[in-house]
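Researcher: Please predict.
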Amino acid sequence: MIRVLLVDDQAVVRAGFRFLLEQADDIEVVAEASNGPMAVELARRHSPDVVCMDVRMPGGDGLAATREIVASGGPDGATPPAVLVVTTFDLDEYVFGALEAGAGGFILKDCEPEELIDAVRRLADGHGLIDQAVTRRVIAEFARRKAPPEPTSDIAPQLTAREAEIVRQLARGLSNAEIARELVVETSTVKSHLGRAMAKVGTRDRLQTVVWAYQNGLAPH
């Protein structure tokens, strides 16, 4: 079962999300929080796999809570919960803030029920995502805002040439299958190289790897 913590200041929203998620036979809502500090405490207490986090809440915002949950890690050094930011706002600042806080995904509240369920499953499985309505725009804006530096001297020894190239293609917004076609290799090869690259640079999922690529000058200009 995928254990989920719901965080939203509106009880009716939490009730709606609980109803939708528990229609899936592999998802269980283990707790609910109405603000950021409560979310941090319940994440420690219940060790969920995924936290569905609102952004703007009285008494403690979701971005600060996301940062603390991700930084604190899981019990006994385990991997921290994956945070899925679920918001009515698709403003770039919220997306950037969520990514920089360590969120693994970003989705809008007006998504279809199946999209929410799929997002929870994907994050639980280690795959980050951003709502398709904002994905390309966010990547383009990252490129514009963060004039990428030259790759630092310690990046080359960290990644092989193939791993670095796959990370570059990922930062362009390509899927594993698209990268495989671009580089004329098998999709399984892309997945294997990407997994090793993520382990080397310490990112948890594809989304955080894209952020790392931009921060370290490995994204395409």
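Model: The two ends are 42 Å apart (CA to CA).
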